[in-house]
């Protein structure tokens, strides 16, 4: 009952936000429906097909890669670890006429090492808003319109949970060819700049 109620809330909020919006924004909605469907079905091939040829991926294990072929491999690892990712809340905003940013908050399969979710444990300062209840993953997507077609040019997946122990997948993670694994120290101009550069090098 509660699961159905949350899905109804998601559908109503997302559709209401899109009332009276442009064909481009409605196109983003259609893409998001397909992306969310692929994430819930754990279909890495379909998921990666929405990324542009030089899209940047910043995964939940500290992994970075470029291009749909490599993204498909890392998305498969993510789905293997997390299970189906189901949307709780989708928030979109326009950054430029041809650039859209979308945040997707998602639930996932509960694992033994999970202590509780971040929203229940964080002490947020006044004026701040935490992630939606029960959300465990936030996927941030940047869409860019190229040749009259919307494609994802950058993505960042954040694990919002707090754990008792370091997740096993992070210590045993094997990077795919063409991918960068976790770095012991931050690299100047690293993944954050890779994500943001999609906005300034169009």
Characterize the structure shown:
- There is one protein chain.
- By secondary structure, the chain is α+β, with helices and mostly antiparallel strands.
- It has a single domain, classed as Roll (Nuclear Transport Factor 2, Chain: A).
- The protein has helices spanning 2-17, 23-41, 44-48, 68-82, 118-121, 168-171, 191-200, and strands at 51-58, 64-66, 86-96, 99-107, 114-117, 137-146, 149-159, 161-163, 179-180.
- The strands form 2 sheets. It has a 7-stranded mixed sheet with strand order 3-4-6-7-1-2-9, with helices on both faces. A two-stranded antiparallel sheet has the order 5-8.
- The radius of gyration is 17 Å and the shape is globular.
- Residues 5-19, 115-119 and 184-202 have low confidence and may be disordered.
